[in-house]
Amino acid sequence: MLDLVLGMRVEQKVRQWLLCTANVFFCFTCGSMTMSQTYTALTKQVDGWWVGWIEEIPGVNCQEPTRETLLETLAITLREAIAFNRQDALAMVGSDDREECIAL
C-alpha cells in the first residue's frame, strides 16, 4: 500500500514537473531558464461574432465566429507580433548590439 501511495506521489510530482517545464525556455544570452510570458485576452461577443484583444500588446486583435477559434487566432497573432517586433528591433540595432535578458 505504501508503494502505491508513494508511486502516486511520485507520478503526481513528475506530472507537475512536466507541466511546469513545458513553458520553460533557456536563454542563450544570459544562460538562465525562463518561464514563458502569459498575456491577457479580453474577449466579448458582438453581433454573433467573438472579438478579442491582447491587453498587454497594442494592435493584437482578432474576430472569429467562435470563442475557441478566437483564442487560437489571438495566440497565433500574438506570436507573430512578437516575432515581427523582434525582427524590427534586431534590424534597427544592427551588428553592434548587446542582448540582455530581463525577467518580469
Order of helices and strands: HEEEEEH
The low-confidence runs, each spanning 5 or more residues with pLDDT under 50, are 1-8, 13-22
Strand order, largest beta sheet = 3-4-5
The total beta strand count reads 5
Mean pLDDT: 78
Q: How much is the radius of gyration in Å?
A: 20 Å
What structural class is derived from the secondary structure elements?
A: alpha+beta
Helix segment count? Answer: 2
Query: What characterizes the major β-sheet?
Result: 3 strands, antiparallel
Measure the end-to-end span: 44 Å
What coarse outline follows from CA principal-axis ratios? elongated
- As a percent range, the share of helical residues equals 40-55%
What percentage of the residues does DSSP assign to strands (E)?
Answer: 15-25%
Query: What is the number of independent domains?
Result: 2
Description:
The strands form 2 sheets. This protein has a 3-stranded antiparallel sheet with strand order 3-4-5, covered by helices on one side. A two-stranded antiparallel ribbon has the order 1-2. The chain is 45% helix and 21% strand. The N terminus is likely disordered. It contains 2 helices and 5 strands; from the N terminus they run αβββββα. The protein has 2 domains: 36 residues, no CATH class; 57 residues. It is of the alpha+beta class. The N and C termini lie far apart (44 Å).
